[in-house]
Design a protein that fits this description.
heterodimer; A: about 170 residues; mainly alpha; Rna Polymerase Sigma Factor, Chain: A; Arc Repressor Mutant, subunit A; B: about 160 residues; alpha+beta; Alpha-D-Glucose-1,6-Bisphosphate, Chain A, domain 4; 7-stranded antiparallel sheet; 4 helices
């Protein structure tokens, strides 16, 4: 689907066209699944469903159809963190912090590494390593100051290495 | 490095659509029949749909282009409606000028999770949503019960 077709679907869906909403759902679902997987882990299907509901309920507020995926990504990350935090309260687990992008453990078992992180750190990791964002873009996507992202990354890497070194 | 990815199954997609369309209602059940058998009934719109949607007297498909279909329905009071349809295994969405209907099915070992969506397009849809939902709350479970019965009859 090219950008023009996608923009047409967004406009039709904003007008309440159910068939256009269904086609837009087909276009968005793979990306939402890719964003939710690393953040919400076993709760990712719930997170993806809730993220897409939030996306469609807010669709009328999207002024520029070309911004669809960036806008949907911000909503999805927020919803995935919320769902994962809610699930974590029900399943308390030991938490560690972020690995460096070149940490060899990432190549061994990314899921095992992700399970040791908080949902917020998983979101940073996904945006930085999967989406290729720099620290400023990560901060924008999460609505967090750049300094906070930098300090979390730095502290997290130290903690993560200590955790694996034990 | 392989990142975990999740897929949204057809039932979850239908829930999203139900939440997105004001006044739409989704009814879900588990049918004691394999997916192939359930979807054979769902996909046979011309023959089966008038049997489980009792307000529809007939449905004729007039155009097919891959997953996209065009169909005309006739109701018992003579009303005709043109529907644009997307139909593929486990997923069907039908939209006319005033109606939105959808079906989704997901295999669940040797059973099938199945869901119906019923919605209406009207002006001031958000304001009318409670009234539309009341209509859907009657229509969707009734269609689901009729559909389940059709699957049972095809098993016999």
């Amino acid at each position: 689907m090219d950008d023009r077709e996608l923009a047409g679907l967004v406009v039709a869906a904003q007008r309440g066209d159910g068939l256009a909403m269904a086609e837009l759902l087909d276009a968005l679902a793979p990306a939402v699944g890719r964003w939710c997987g690393p953040i919400a882990l076993q709760d990712a299907p719930d997170a993806a469903q809730e993220a897409l509901i939030a996306v469609f309920r807010g669709l009328k507020g999207l002024r520029d159809p070309a911004a669809l995926f960036g806008w949907a990504r911000a909503i999805t990350v927020r919803e995935a963190v919320r769902v994962a935090r809610r699930a974590a309260r029900e399943r308390p687990a030991e938490l560690a912090d972020l690995p460096a992008p070149d940490d060899p453990m990432l190549a061994v078992d990314v899921r095992d590494v992700l399970e040791r992180l908080t949902p917020e750190h998983r979101a940073i990791l996904m945006l930085r390593d999967l989406e290729g964002f720099d620290e400023r873009s990560v901060a924008d996507a999460l609505g967090t100051p750049v300094g906070t992202v930098k300090s979390r990354l730095s502290r997290a890497r130290d903690n993560f290495r200590k955790g694996w070194g034990r | 490095m392989s990142w975990p990815v999740t897929e949204l199954d057809a039932i979850r997609r239908l829930r999203v659509l139900g939440a997105a369309v004001p006044g739409a209602v989704v009814a879900e059940t588990t049918i004691d029949a394999p997916f192939e058998q359930v979807w054979a009934v769902a996909a046979d719109l011309e023959n089966e749909l008038p049997r489980y949607l009792r307000d529809v007297r007939s449905l004729h498909i007039t155009r097919t282009d891959g997953q996209r279909l065009e169909a005309y329905t006739r109701g018992y009071v003579g009303l005709r409606a043109r529907f644009d349809i997307v139909l593929r295994p486990g997923w069907c969405v039908m939209r006319s000028r005033f109606l939105l209907g959808a079906m989704a099915a997901v295999p669940d070992s040797d059973r099938t999770r199945f869901a119906f969506l019923a919605g209406v397009h009207v002006p001031a849809q958000r304001i009318a949503a409670p009234a539309l939902a009341a209509i859907g709350r009657r229509a969707a479970p009734r269609a689901l019960a009729n559909f389940t019965e059709r699957v049972r009859l095809t098993q016999a």
